[in-house]
Design a protein that fits this description.
Length: 552
C-alpha cells in the first residue's frame, strides 16, 4: 500500500507521521466495521452514550497540552489558537453530553380518542465525514460527538495535511469508552473521500471545505442516495466600518479576524468596507498593526502568525495579490513571501490592499483552504453609505457580529451584550449555529451605533429578501430577485432574473432584517412585480406577516 507523509508546515523536514493511502476497498472495510459496531452501540441508552462523551471531554482536557503542541506542529497554528482548537473539542463534548438527557421526540394531539401520536429519533446508521486541516481537532468534534450520541457509527476521512491530529482525537474518544470499531479513520487524498461520499453503506455524509468541492460531494452523495448531506463551506467575510465606529475595537477585530490561523479560515475577515470619513485613519492603524505582527515557528509562544500550509499555497496568495494590483489595488503592506530564520516553511507577510473595488477578483473569490485562502489579505474599499458590496458572492449565508463600545452593546434584536464584549457573535461556541441556510459561511461584521437604522447582514439577494441600499442613515429600499430560473454557477447571477423594489420605513427595515437574519424570509418566485414567498403570492403586508409569524 502506498503511503504519504504529514509534515510540519513551518519546518517541512520535520515529519509528523506516515500514513497509508487508502482506496475504495479500505473504505468498504471501514464502513463494514463501523456498521457492525453501530448495531450494538445503538442499543446503549442515550444517557449512557452521553456519559462516554463526557468522558472524552475529560481525556482531551487532561491531554490538552500535548494535543495543542501537535496541532501547532502539524497544522501550523500558533499555540494560543492551537489550544483554542483543542478546547473547542472539550466544550463540544460537554455540550453534546448534556443533550443525552434532552427530549428526543414529541407527542401531539390526535383527532381520535384512542390514538397516540408520537415521534422519536433513531440513528441513521453510518455517517461519513470529510474534514479539513485548519481546525483538525475542533471540526471532527463538531461532527463526531453528535453522531455518536445519536447512536451512529462514523467513518472519517481527515485532510492529508492533518492526519495525526485526527488520529489523536479518535484515540482520546476510544480511551473514554467509545467502541474502537465505531470510529473508523481512512487516510489519503481525493479517492477515499469520493468513495465515502457514494458508499451504499453510508446513510449520511458531512463535508467541510470549499464551495466547489462541496457541490460535487453533495451531487455525488444524492445521485447514489437518498442520504442526509451536511455541508459547511467557504466564505468571503466583510466587516463594515461606519463613521462612528469604535476604531480600537474595529482594528482589534480586523487584525485577529484577518490574520489568525494565517488567514486560513472560512470565518476569516477578508474584506473591510469603510466609510470615507474614517478610511484614512483605519487603513493607517490596520497597516501599522499588521506590520508589527511577528512571523515564525508557531510553537514559539511569542509568534503571532505561523506559516501557510505549504509552498503552493504561498504561490497562490502571491498570484492573488498580483492580480489585485493588476486590477488597480495598492499594496499598503506585505505582499510578498518571506524567509523566516530557522524555518524552511512557506511564510507570507500579512498583507493589506487598498483601493479594492467590489468587482475585483480579490474582493469576490475565496481560495480553497487546502491551498490556503487569500483571506489574510485584508481589502479596504471606500464605499460611503452604500453597503451593497457586503453581498458579493452567490449563495452565501448571513451571520453578523458587532464590534461596539459598551454603551452600544446590543444586537439587532435588542438582546443586551455584557459590557466589554468585543466580538459579539463571531465566536464558535458549541451551543451556537455556524453557517446558515445557503451555501457558504459568510460573516458580516457591522460597525455602527444603536441610534442608526439597522443595516442588514446581507445574504444572497437571489435567495433572501434583504435591504440593499441606505440613504443617509435610513434604509429605504428592498431589492427582490426571481430565481425560478436557477443561478448560473460561473457568474453567480440569477438566470432570467427580474428586479423589483419597494420602499421601507424604519420599522419595516428592522423587521425585515430580523426575518432575514433568522432565515424566515426568502423568495421563490414573483409575478407582476409582486414578491412571492414560500410558493404563495404575497402582498407587501404579507411579507412582514411572514417575518412576524416566523414562517416562510
Amino acid at each position: 500500500m502506498n503511503a504519504f507523509r504529514s509534515v510540519n508546515p513551518a519546518r517541512p523536514d520535520d515529519v509528523v507521521g506516515e500514513y497509508p493511502t487508502h482506496g475504495p476497498a479500505d473504505v468498504d472495510a471501514a464502513v463494514a466495521r463501523a456498521a457492525a459496531a453501530q448495531r450494538d452501540w445503538a442499543r446503549v441508552p442515550a444517557p449512557a452514550r452521553a456519559e462516554v462523551i463526557a468522558g472524552a471531554a475529560a481525556v482531551i482536557a487532561g491531554d490538552k497540552e500535548a494535543m495543542t503542541a501537535l496541532v501547532s506542529r502539524e497544522a501550523g497554528k500558533v499555540l494560543v489558537e492551537a489550544g483554542g482548537d483543542v478546547q473547542e473539542a472539550v466544550d463540544m463534548a460537554h455540550f453534546v453530553a448534556g443533550q443525552g438527557r434532552s427530549a428526543w421526540g414529541e407527542t401531539v394531539p390526535s383527532e381520535l380518542g384512542d390514538k397516540l401520536c408520537w415521534t422519536t429519533r433513531q440513528p441513521v446508521g453510518v455517517v461519513g465525514m470529510i474534514t479539513p486541516w485548519n481546525f483538525p481537532v475542533a471540526i471532527p468534534s463538531w461532527k463526531i460527538f453528535p453522531a455518536v450520541l445519536a447512536g451512529n457509527g462514523v467513518v472519517i476521512k481527515p485532510s492529508e495535511h492533518a492526519p495525526a491530529c485526527c488520529e489523536a482525537f479518535v484515540a482520546a474518544c476510544v480511551e473514554a469508552g467509545v467502541p474502537a470499531d465505531l470510529l473508523q479513520v481512512v487516510h489519503g487524498f481525493a479517492e477515499p473521500a469520493a468513495a465515502l461520499a457514494v458508499h451504499p453503506g453510508v446513510q449520511a455524509i458531512s463535508f467541510t471545505g470549499s464551495v466547489p468541492t462541496g457541490r460535487k460531494v453533495a451531487a455525488a452523495a444524492m445521485e447514489t442516495g437518498p442520504r442526509l448531506v451536511s455541508l459547511e463551506l467557504g466564505g468571503k467575510n466583510a466587516m463594515v466600518i461606519r463613521p462612528d465606529a469604535d476604531l480600537d475595537l474595529a482594528v482589534d477585530g480586523a487584525i485577529f479576524g484577518a490574520f489568525g490561523t494565517s488567514g486560513q479560515r472560512c470565518t476569516s475577515t477578508s474584506r473591510l468596507i469603510t466609510h470615507p470619513d474614517v478610511a484614512g485613519e483605519l487603513v493607517d492603524r490596520v497597516v501599522k498593526r499588521a506590520g508589527e505582527l511577528r512571523l515564525g515557528d508557531p510553537q514559539d509562544p511569542t509568534v503571532d502568525v505561523g506559516p501557510v500550509i505549504n509552498a503552493s499555497s504561498a504561490e497562490r496568495i502571491a498570484g492573488m495579490v498580483a492580480a489585485a494590483v493588476d486590477e488597480g489595488a495598492t499594496v499598503a503592506c506585505g505582499g510578498q513571501q518571506l524567509q523566516v530564520a530557522g524555518c524552511g516553511g512557506a511564510f507570507y507577510a500579512p498583507t493589506v490592499l487598498t483601493g479594492v473595488r467590489p468587482e475585483h477578483r480579490v474582493a469576490r473569490e475565496e481560495v480553497p483552504r487546502d491551498m490556503r485562502p487569500e483571506d489574510a489579505v485584508t481589502t479596504l474599499d471606500e464605499l460611503g453609505n452604500r453597503v451593497t458590496a457586503v453581498n458579493l458572492l452567490p449563495g452565501e449565508t448571513l451571520r453578523a457580529g458587532r464590534f461596539q463600545s459598551p454603551d452600544q452593546a446590543r444586537t439587532a434584536d435588542g438582546v443586551e451584550i455584557p459590557e466589554g464584549t468585543q466580538i459579539v457573535t463571531l465566536s464558535l461556541e458549541p451551543q451556537r449555529a455556524l453557517g446558515g441556510r445557503v451555501t457558504a459561511g459568510q460573516l458580516v461584521g457591522v460597525m455602527l451605533s444603536v441610534d442608526q437604522a439597522e443595516i442588514p447582514n446581507q445574504a444572497n439577494p437571489a435567495e433572501t429578501i434583504v435591504a440593499d441600499q441606505t440613504t443617509g442613515m435610513v434604509l429605504n429600499q428592498v431589492l427582490v430577485t426571481d430565481v425560478s430560473g436557477g443561478v448560473d454557477e460561473e457568474t453567480g447571477q440569477a438566470e432570467g432574473a427580474v428586479m423589483v423594489s419597494f420602499a421601507l420605513d424604519e420599522s419595516d427595515a428592522e423587521r425585515l432584517v430580523f426575518g432575514a437574519e433568522h432565515g424566515r424570509v426568502w423568495l421563490t418566485e414573483q409575478n407582476q412585480n409582486t414578491p412571492t414567498l414560500g410558493g404563495q403570492f404575497r402582498t407587501r403586508e404579507n411579507i412582514f406577516d411572514a417575518v412576524n409569524e416566523g414562517s416562510p
